[in-house]
Amino acid sequence: MAEIEPNWEWYRSFLQVLETGSLSAAARALGLTQPTIGRHIDSLETALGLKLFTRSYDGFAATDAAQELRPYAAGLAATAAALRRAASGQAAGVRGVVRVTASEVIGVEVLPPILAALRAQHPGLSLELMLSNRADDLLHREADIAVRMFRPAQDALMARRVGGVELGLHAHEQYLAHHGTPASLQELAQHTLIGFDRENAFIRRVQQEYQAFARADLAFRADSDLAQLAAIRAGYGIGFCQVRLAARDRRLVRVLPQQFALNLDTWIAMHEDLRGSARCAATFAALAEGLAAYIEGR
Amino acid sequence: MAEIEPNWEWYRSFLQVLETGSLSAAARALGLTQPTIGRHIDSLETALGLKLFTRSYDGFAATDAAQELRPYAAGLAATAAALRRAASGQAAGVRGVVRVTASEVIGVEVLPPILAALRAQHPGLSLELMLSNRADDLLHREADIAVRMFRPAQDALMARRVGGVELGLHAHEQYLAHHGTPASLQELAQHTLIGFDRENAFIRRVQQEYQAFARADLAFRADSDLAQLAAIRAGYGIGFCQVRLAARDRRLVRVLPQQFALNLDTWIAMHEDLRGSARCAATFAALAEGLAAYIEGR
DNA sequence: TAGCCGCTATAAGAATCCGAATACCCATGG
DNA sequence: CCATGGGTATTCGGATTCTTATAGCGGCTA
Description:
Radius of gyration of chain A: 24 Å
CATH superfamily of the largest domain in chain A: Periplasmic binding protein-like II
Shape of chain A: globular
Largest interface: A-B, 37 and 37 residues
Oligomer: homodimer
CATH topology of the largest domain in chain A: D-Maltodextrin-Binding Protein, domain 2
Number of helices of chain A: 11
CATH architecture of the largest domain in chain A: 3-Layer(aba) Sandwich
Number of strands of chain A: 11
Helix content of chain A: 40-55%
CATH class of the largest domain in chain A: Alpha Beta
């Protein structure tokens, strides 16, 4: 038992093998060769005193032990990436890489013009957009700035509320032309409803406030908010959509505006450590301004 | 500009140089040699395109850039250490290393017998104790299990409330013999009071509830809760102390028990990822049981 | 002021690690 | 049934990296 501290580089190889499923693929991804990766895994196994993979002739199979270690290795990779981003923006002025995470709808429909304008203003700046609804992106350093529809709970974050995004029921005018416009909650039950497949905080709130949207009543379900939006636009049926977003397309009509309305608080959050970073501060400010403009309908 | 991805091993050298202040010391700490560390730093500087240290003949001086990158490097080290702990406990049964964090008083006065009993039960288990009041230990993976006097706010944590620790004013009987026992809040003002030097959540609560303990009135201040406890035991004056703790020493007398009482919720928290770990589950259970016994005065 | 200690920088030999080539295994498809 | 493609294991020469050693610099102390 050598009791050797593993070389951190071995962790990188380990993670890559986990993610690609084979030594060869990991080697390609890392710009190394298969024997090298194989040696790294061997070394790591002896250093940890664990069997990480069961060898076979079509790729490695990760053992349970390897799977348990995976989140740690992924954490290393995320932190290393964050370090690189931080380093890229060290020089004076607004330059370097900023990684922004947001929900799919916001990321696709709202952020691009905001980020484009920001980028035009700062040619040295690069922006990366990561679309997900996971709340822990910032803590795991997977992103620098997050746009979220709920108040970030973590202590180490700087969070600013930029306003409330109004959600309402919408449908395409063609759909309404064919099926009529519901005038009441009862009539809504006769219509094709678009809703969520996956349970999440948002849909629980909807179900709580509006029994009509109980999961069983939905004629279309999709994990992705974007898919729902596309379904509404395609005239599939009636679904929830941000009011400001729908207002951009004259053919989208709001349904039952009095009866159905939800307000989602919108927050921008950033890790405290990045307070001094010019590129992050500039991006934060641009997002705050741009989202406020979006919310107010400018 | 080579645009090379830094070797993760360089980060380890970088952090060690930051922490030790010189190439040579870092080399000793890592079991390498000074020219090696020097080359790592050089490589990292060119890879990141940053000047990390200003060379001088008595150690390096870290630049601002290096200081900004420090938390990331520390995060890497913490995650790597957590990975090793996780790996050490992979084998079946309760074995490996568990790292517990707690406040100083709990860690010194309450936990040792609990941990000793646990260890006696599981000879393959090693325990590490880290004493601090920082809330983010678990998220940065600096510890596996935390004993805290407030409800952990993070989502990714499993937290269990084990009860309320009662705090009260105490003094040594010798002190009271010399100065008398205060019978009212007014009399307390004539006495020597032991309190906190640093502002924190606890003292703010005390000040809010008991004006007598405004900071200016304190005749003895110490950052460390242990130092306060020692002062009480030494007969220096009257201060706050856990009631159960004071009850162990017959010469410590509770003062104004009706007027002054604070109840601190006590929580045990663990990262969700560790749920499946036998060694962490066993430690968690032992802490829950032991702390409950302490709180109930068993 | 001389001497010592700890530090960094540099050069050259030793040890290590990597990569190319190869052998072999398995699944797939004509 | 054989050819093919993607995978792992192994070997060996060569490039890279580490260590050893040496020199130079600055601060401290006698």
